[in-house]
Amino acid sequence: MHDLSTRERALALVAQGRSLNAVSKETGISRAAIRSWQVRRDPLRPTDCPRCQDVPGPPQDPAAYAYLLGLYLGDGCVSPLKRGVHSLRIACADAWPGLIDACAEAIQAVMPANKVCQVRQQGCRQVTSFSKHWPCLFPQHGPGKKHERPIVLEPWQHEIVDANAWEFIRGLIHSDGCRVTNWTTRTVDGELRRYEYPRYFFTNVSGDILGLFTAALDRVGVEWKRANRKNISIARKASVALMDAHVGAKY
Question: What is the pLDDT of residues 211-248, one digit of tens each?
Fold first, then answer.
């Protein structure tokens, strides 16, 4: 790690017309480091990425980030492209246009300097944005499927999720969850009657992601049960009412 004054001096020498080789020999800093400072950031100004500041901080809209993190863990991916650029893609079903809009708004709020686009695919849209800094904001990215590798939040992410638990839950439900109406029958005074009741389900193959979801539910006082290995059920009346107030059905 090099302090700000060291970076300023190295880039000032380059700006004077010195070659990277010459500056590297004079300062003892590798050419790769100097080149990365040129390409990725200007040390004389704060970078657009809050994680690449000299003192890393949280995204400027923590609530939007918590929601986007939930979407990413469910239906998102970060993929490397050329020259250090990465794409963030969130798959949103065409059946839920409100979700598509909410996803695009969250991406824009988290990375306001970057454009958000929608790529049409059969039955869905890939809400997409390009930046060199998506890996900074989503360090859970990596090769392969999420359920085949550990998914662990960084301490700064835990702070955001703890402070914005409902937004995180909403993002997870909007990606891999649903609100459904179940029914059952009971015999009352000799008459068979049908009763309907709402409940929420969250489905994910990753045990780590299921654990993050249930931990957030515990934090906001929602009772839940594990229906099976990959399904979490929320059926108690008071807990469903809480979910309706803060999350609601997809739209």
Answer: 999 999 999 999 999 999 999 999 999 999 999 999 99
Coil, strand, or helix at residue 131?
strand
DSSP string, 173-236: HHHHEEEEEEEEEEEETTEEEEEEEEEEEEE-S-HHHHHHHHHHHHHHT---EEEETTEEEE--
Which range marks the domain in which residue 15 is found? 4-45
Residue 40 pLDDT: 53
Same domain, 180 and 242: yes
Structural domains in the chain (count)? 3
67 and 41 in one domain?
no
3-state secondary structure of 24: helix
**Rounded to two decimals, what is the model's pTM?**
0.78
Residue 70 and residue 115 share a domain: yes
Q: What is the pLDDT of residues 14-68, one digit of tens each?
A: 877 788 888 888 888 888 778 777 655 443 344 567 887 777 888 989 999 999 9
Taking CA atoms, 224 is separated from 43, 201, 219, in Å, by 48, 10, 12
CATH number at residue 122: 3.10.28.10
- Using alpha carbons, select from 229, 121, 210 the residue that is nearest to residue 169: 210
Count other Cβ atoms within 10 Å, centred on residue 82.
5
**Which residues, including other chains, have CB under 8 Å from residue 143's CB and lie 6 or more apart?**
none
pLDDT band at 197 (very low <50, low <70, confident <90, very high): confident
Residues 189, 236, single domain; the answer is yes
